[in-house]
Amino acid sequence: MSEPLVFHFDVDGENFTSAGQASTQVKKNLRQLGLSPEIIRRVSIAMYEGEINMVIHADGGTADVIVSDDGIDIVLKDQGPGIPNVEQAMQEGFSTATDSIRSLGFGAGMGLPNMKRYTDSMNIDTVVGEGTTVTMRVDL
Amino acid sequence: MKISTIRDLLGAEVLCCEDSLDSDVYSACGSDMMSDVLAYVKDQAVLLTGLVNPQVIRTAQMMDMVCIVFVRSKRPSEAMISMAEDDGIVMMATDMRMYNACGTLYVNGLIGTATHV
Description:
The complex is a heterodimer. By secondary structure, chain A is α+β, with helices and mostly antiparallel strands. Chain A has one domain: Histidine kinase-like ATPase, C-terminal domain (Heat Shock Protein 90, 2-Layer Sandwich). Chain A is built from five helices and five strands. In chain A, strands 1-2-3-5-4 form a five-stranded antiparallel β-sheet, covered by helices on one side. The longest helix of chain A has 22 residues, at 37-58. Chain A is globular. The model of chain A has no long low-confidence stretch (mean pLDDT 94). In chain B, helix 3 packs parallel to helix 4. Chain B has five helices and seven strands. Chain B has helices at residues 3-10, 34-38, 54-62, 78-87, 98-107, and strands at residues 13-16, 27-30, 40-42, 45-49, 67-70, 90-93, 114-116. Chain B has a single domain (3-116), classed as Udp-n-acetylmuramoylalanyl-d-glutamate--2,6- Diaminopimelate Ligase, Chain: A, domain 1, CATH 3.40.1390.20. Chain B is of the alpha/beta class. In chain B, strand 4, helix 3 (54-62) and strand 5 form a beta-alpha-beta unit. The two termini of chain B are 24 Å apart. In chain B, the strands form two sheets. Chain B has a five-stranded mixed β-sheet with strand order 1-6-5-4-2, sandwiched between helices. The A-B interface holds A 16-20, 23-24, 27, 37, 41-42, 44-45, 48-49, 52, 102, 104-111, 113-114, 117-118 and B 32-36, 38-39, 41, 49, 51, 53-56, 58-59, 61-64, 116-117.
């Protein structure tokens, strides 16, 4: 088995305009690795939704993408407010985003469901007041 | 449907990537909510939206979309045009409202198929 490739990013929580830059870079990196367009699309959409969530809810965080022979792992870590009720947050249409976020095109309550939809597994480890780590995997 | 046909049907002004007007699109999506756009996989799609910020371009990039149409006379910034240019995404702007623009494309054959993953 070859050594896993790790891509690390700091996600700036101050700037909504730049949100998604890490996902854009990951998409480019995965293209260079010659992965199928469908796999690349699933990884980049899931990560993009997570990145947007980190910016609008948690003042940024870190994103790590680990590419190994049998899968791609995405680890998104923040020190935001945490998610009080994960089951509720996973429901399509549920959102705590403000009207100002909705006016920017997000906060429809589709972010977490989309992340689950596009990945083969997803785990949310969250503590209210301390932060959230979302781990997703796309099998190869 | 050719992107050039979309331009003609919507009376749209092309803002970048004019050399790709001969490309085909097979489906379309009209929304101002980007997460709704991201919920459905589409094949060589066009995005119609009244939202104007860089996340529109990023959403199109993530979805491998080939064309963005801004409705209701909305105009993207130069920075947004530059982002789309880098990815070869055709951008255009029309005076039409969302409902009319989508309806016009639909009745002219751009029915498309969108599938939930």
